[in-house]
């Protein structure tokens, strides 16, 4: 057993961060489009565009939440694996130290 612990799930972590980043970009575009369409609320279609941009922002917020929750789950899994690695190493050292009993 090696003495150092290496983190796992790096590819999944990348996709979690990518999902969060895309969500933030969607939120930024949604806020920008809300500001632009907010100036045209007096027209018939302006209100629909404003509501649509708010809905898009809510979708972006959901993407950010999903990415962050998945990242937290993977961080927790890595922490549990690291604890398991330490405990196995300690158990292995104790097995070698024990005196055989007759």
Poorly predicted parts: none
User: With helices defined by DSSP (H or I, 4 residues minimum), what is the helix count?
Assistant: 2
The class by helix and strand makeup works out as: mainly alpha
| Strand residue percentage | under 5%
Computed over alpha carbons, the radius of gyration is 25 Å
Tell me what the structure shows.
The chain has 102 residues and is mostly helical. The chain is 81% helix and 0% strand. It is rod-shaped, with a radius of gyration of 25 Å. The protein starts with 9 loop residues before the first helix and ends in a 5-residue tail after the last helix.
Brief synopsis:
The protein is an all-alpha fold and 102 residues long.
Topology:
Elements (H helix, E strand, L loop, with lengths): L9 H29 L5 H54 L5
Helix pairs in contact: 1-2
């Amino acid at each position: 057993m090696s003495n150092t612990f290496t983190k796992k799930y790096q590819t999944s972590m990348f996709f979690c961060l990518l999902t969060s980043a895309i969500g933030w970009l969607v939120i930024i575009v949604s806020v920008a489009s809300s500001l632009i369409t907010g100036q045209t609320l007096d027209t018939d279609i302006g209100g629909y565009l404003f509501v649509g941009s708010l809905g898009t922002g809510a979708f972006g917020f959901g993407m950010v939440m999903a990415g962050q929750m998945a990242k937290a789950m993977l961080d927790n899994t890595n922490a549990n694996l690291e604890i398991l690695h330490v405990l196995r190493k300690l158990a292995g050292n104790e097995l070698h130290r024990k005196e055989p009993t007759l």
